[in-house]
Amino acid sequence: MSKSAEVKDGICYMCTTACPTRIHVQDGKAVKIDIADPKVTHCPRWKAQLDFVYHPDRLQYPVKRTGKRGDGSWQRISWDEALDSVAGNLQSAKDKYGPESVIFWIAYTKEPRPYFHRLTHAFGSPNYCTESSNCFSGTWIASNLTFGYDYSYFTISGGSVEPETKCKLIWGAAVVTSPPVWEENFYAGNNGVKLIVVDPRRTDIASRADIHLQLRPGTDGALALGFMNVIINENLYDKEFVEKWTVGFDGLKKLAQEYTPERVEEITRVPAGKIREAARLFATNKPGKVHLSANSTTHHVNGVQNHRAVILLAAITGNFEVPGGNRYVAISTEGTNDISLHERIKDMPPGIGSQQFPLWTSRYHEMQSNSIADQIESGQPYPLKAMFSAGLCTQFFGNTNRMVETFKKLDFIAVTEYFHTPGTQLADIVMPIASWLERPILMTGFMGMSKLIEPAIKPLGECRTEWDIYSELAKRLGFGDLFWDGSFEKCADYILEPMKITCKDLQQHPEGIKQPVPAVSENPYEKGGFKTPSGKIEIASATLAKHGLDALPVYHEPPESPVSRPDLARDYPLVMTSGARVMAYTHSQFRNLPQLRKLMPDPLVDINPADADPRNIKTGDMVTVSSPRGSIRMKANVTDAILAGVVSLPHHWPDELNVNLLVDDSTLDPISGFLPYKSQLCQVSKA
Fold first, then answer.
1. Are 219 and 254 in contact (CB under 8 A)?
2. Spelled out in words, what is the top-level CATH class assigned to the domain 6-53?
3. Which residues have CB under 8 Å from 312's CB, separation 6+?
4. How do residues 420-446 score in pLDDT, each as one tens digit?
5. Is the pLDDT of residue 159 over 70?
6. Where are the domains of the chain?
7. Options 3.40.228.10, 3.65.10.10, 3.20.20.70, 3.40.50.720; which CATH number does 152-327+523-546 get?
8. For the whole model, what pTM was predicted?
9. Which of 14, 220, 328, 497 is 20 to 30 A distant from 611 in Cα terms?
């Protein structure tokens, strides 16, 4: 007779929001999952977790490649053979070419990243790479250069709504895939908070806004300077704050004079009258808050400067570090011990991209993945020969075909994954990993809460936790002691040491242990200033100037646009933007889950009727989308929700559906190294 179901605490890791769940387990199998937060019940992904965990195609044992890379020929092997092969090949590359010849690249899952980071530097390689080469880090470095804090006020805390908030300037942050923030924005609009939305698409939140500004992708910086032109010339800025706590305002004032609303209309296609209206609404309804996404402003060649221009709107209007405005959110009092061994990097050769993008790599403490192909092809400043990857996502890279061919030149590739993917097809060894229902998860720092989530079920088949895989590799590579000889509990104890709690304490308190969080104070900079070279908000960044870059948030036209390349625009007249989030998927994941796939069975090209009609394109038609890099085929979705002259494509679909096949990988943001995913030229024709 079956036992009654046991209910265990868990989290949903279908995205990185990590919403709390209750997992019902019967006879060792998870049979039901409930979401604990009522704000996210509308999200479809948490409901598909069991389909993910028990999917018939899930990898359950290690395999090695038997044919050519990409032909799908695999042979099942033991864990000892898999680990010995990976360790042996990484050691061989290290002995012949140095530890720096090995790339360590991780995407999903994110929670075990500290262990992977430690493995990279314990091995001796500086080349720890993640998808942050094109994600949150761009907004982070813009905030860091401008305000000095190691935190972004505008992507995370910008999503919240305080009782004092009277206006929200939501810039490219539709946040449909972040359920709590999605709820916050709708709550704000329904409760009298003025909403201004900047987005080339008429999203749900844009349709509810007081003002919606549809701009040409890549022109965010010009629009922000247009706001400043109005705010400064009409004396709507906070003079006292600006004079006392900023440097470079005189230069900004002069720069903003060049960006009259009429000129900005020519650049952005946003009507001058709407620019004036929006600038006045934001500046006069205080306190106001600027809310941005992790990357909508930064996926352009001028991305960091675009983002700096936008976030400075909060500073010059006095909406910074006040209740209801953009302010720092305390995470914990003492934090945790860092286990990355990053201090060792000073004795290593320069990491990938660190010579081309020194600001980003030195501050964000990762290497720039967008430089991998160039270094493999050139062998400079040293050869790259092997890669160990957790969740290798080839669709992530711009000009993807080039990147795939470049990866094939490596002597050895090992990948850990849940399923076979385009990334595993390049691997020599593939190792199956335990899901978030099957591994222990140490959570620290969320509003001062620390919690250990114990596995709800045993790993399927021969799947192993990433901690086990990394610590076993460490033993074989000769530094098992740096992984506490495989003891997850000892590792957790070290991480938690500053909090004066242990792994056993968390085991005895499955509900978690609350750490005291300091009260948020108004104007905290009054005590010690800002953590910038000047101690003030750097409208003119001394650090950027030192590196020979524009100190002010100067606007530069995208290098591939109808304005900068009219010759190219004759053949590719439409502006292509990509990567808009959808509720069904998290980047490249979950298209193999039927209940999510039916929400978006096919990738769709959003195209305005003004562009579709002359091309005889109707909704549902197959179309060819082409750029100077190649072409792909998708179905058309004819809609006036997208700005005329612009097409929007979803990201990270596999193989011939991958929009990044069309994206240029030769012109990158000089500060962050980011790809221009959201401002490229293309043509759309009926297939």
1. no
2. mainly beta
3. 146, 224, 228, 252, 537, 539, 553
4. 999 999 999 999 999 999 999 999 876
5. no
6. 6-53, 152-327+523-546, 566-686
7. 3.40.228.10
8. 0.94
9. 220
